[in-house]
Amino acid sequence: MNVTRKLSQLILASAVIGGLVLATVPAALADGGLRNCVDLTGREVDRVGCWEDIWAGGEEYRMTFGNTSYTGGTASDVDAFYVLAPQGSVAQGALPFPHDHVIRELPQHNGGAYTAKFRAYFVMCSEQGIVSGACEPTMSTIEGFGTLPLAHQVNGGPLTSTASIEAALDAGQVALFDTGAVIVGTVTAAR
User: Fold this and answer.
1) Structure pTM?
2) pLDDT tens-digit series, residues 111-169
3) CA 139 to chain CA mean position, Å
């Protein structure tokens, strides 16, 4: 089993990434019977839609996912979907390791709800970030990869927006690991 496939199966447990991809669940279903992705087990993981919370522009929102095959998307039409250490006292995702998610700020022309394709990246403290003390890691054990320093804070502040993550990246305080997976999610409502 290659590393990309193993990573995809690992993340499927939390429905961050299903197989290699997930397709959207209509926004109308967001609170009508969908369950938190971490509550899905066994064969349900591949058959039902679910939701998880995400950060966008420093605010928490709900994103819905479904497990049907999605094979589209190119580097030119996908946004970043950052997976990092929990930014608050409760992780947005608990399996297979505690983690949070960050996407770009939501478009306001449609009330903030939208559907987009996302490429998943782990956000880790870089060696420079750790040595300088600028990046505070949460050591997270990920099957097949060992223990990784997922970013928790940079310069004492949370990473709850793409602006904060990308500023830390530009400063060399964090590094990204591209999982290669593309997901589709629908941001439906403020949490």
Assistant:
1) 0.76
2) 666 677 788 899 999 999 999 999 999 999 888 778 999 999 999 999 999 999 999 99
3) 17
* Long-range CB contact pairs, 67-70, < 8 A, 24+: 67/15, 67/18, 67/19, 67/22, 67/23, 68/22, 68/23, 69/19, 69/21, 69/23, 70/21, 70/22, 70/23, 70/117, 70/182, 70/183, 70/184
What residue ranges do the domains of the chain occupy?
Answer: 3-121+176-190
Residues 6+ apart with CB under 8 A from 103: 54, 55, 56, 63, 79, 80, 81, 82, 116, 118, 162, 185, 187
What is the rounded distance in angstroms from the CA atom of residue 191 to the CA atom of residue 189? 6
Structure tokens at 48: 């039902």
d(CA 131, CA 118): 31
Between CA 24 and CA 183 the distance in angstroms is 8
